[in-house]
Specification:
With 268 residues, this protein is mainly alpha-helical. It contains eleven helices and no strands. It starts with 8 loop residues before the first helix and ends with a helix.
């Protein structure tokens, strides 16, 4: 009678393999899920980080909403930047100008400011050049309408002084000079010299004596230096000269200067 063959270990192992494989898959799936949960937990932002991100978003949104940007042509964008920089110059001075703040105030981007002016120094120079050009234009118009009387000259000097003293413009002009910056374009004094010389010749009509333009230029330069100095350090100089505590001293100095200039312009 044939005996049945005994079961080999290999056969037993083969029969129980599916159970073992199933347990392994279950354990592997559980471990994989745990790793995924751990991975998600490790990358989740902390409450502080979330708060920082939210704060930055709020800050950026507030900055963007301060003055909405709108598309402008080059000329209007440049004018808006100069207007904004002029406002900032009044409150913080040339050293306190920040291009990002000016850009936000003007409603343009920071790169737009750099495109038009190149740097903070270039922007400050452009602001002052525009201001001086406006002063010169008003002064030339006043000279053209003047008869050259001392009272008219005094009124013109007062107007120039007020424009230089207002918003610290005279201080910025001095700062530009110390930085080696040159005033160019319509801000140059040549137009004022020409207008003053034309007035001198009109007042001396019929006289044969030739007037030298250089002498007229000297008069304009003297008045400019006196008014710039007075706008920056006038009170200190007057105090040093023994005129402290006199509220009208600055005005009387300009009146005296106007009389001196008028007399010279008539006599030479």
């Amino acid at each position: 009678m044939a005996r049945s063959l005994p079961k080999s270990p290999a056969s037993s192992s083969t029969r129980h393999a599916p159970v073992k494989s199933t347990t392994s898959r279950g354990r592997t799936s559980a471990e994989s899920g745990a790793r995924r949960r751990t991975s998600r937990a490790s990358v989740a932002p902390s409450p502080r980080a979330s708060g920082d991100v939210a704060a930055r978003r709020v800050s950026v949104t507030a900055e963007d909403n301060a003055k909405p940007r709108r598309r402008r042509d080059a000329a209007s964008a440049r004018a808006a930047i100069l207007d904004a920089a002029d406002r900032h110059l009044v409150t913080v001075g040339p050293s306190g100008i920040r291009l990002q703040e000016v850009a936000a105030d003007a409603g343009v981007s920071h790169p737009t400011v750099l495109h038009h002016f190149g740097s903070r120094e270039g922007l400050v120079k452009a602001v002052i050049t525009r201001s001086l050009a406006e002063i010169n234009a008003r002064l030339v118009e006043a000279i053209a309408q003047s008869t050259g009387e001392a009272a008219q000259v005094a009124a013109m000097l007062d107007g120039v002084f007020d424009a230089l003293a207002a918003h610290g413009r005279a201080r910025v002009v001095m700062w530009l000079a110390l930085e080696g910056q040159r005033i160019e374009g319509d801000a140059r004094l040549a137009s004022v010299v020409d207008a003053t010389h034309a007035l001198r010749k009109a007042r001396r009509d019929g006289q044969r004596r030739t007037l030298a333009r250089e002498d007229t230029a000297h008069v304009v330069v003297l008045a400019t230096l006196a008014l710039l100095g007075a706008a920056v350090m006038g009170p200190a100089v007057l105090e040093n000269a023994g005129l402290a505590g006199d509220a009208g001293a600055e005005g009387r100095f300009r009146g005296w200067l106007a009389a001196l200039l008028s007399k010279h312009l008539d006599e030479i």
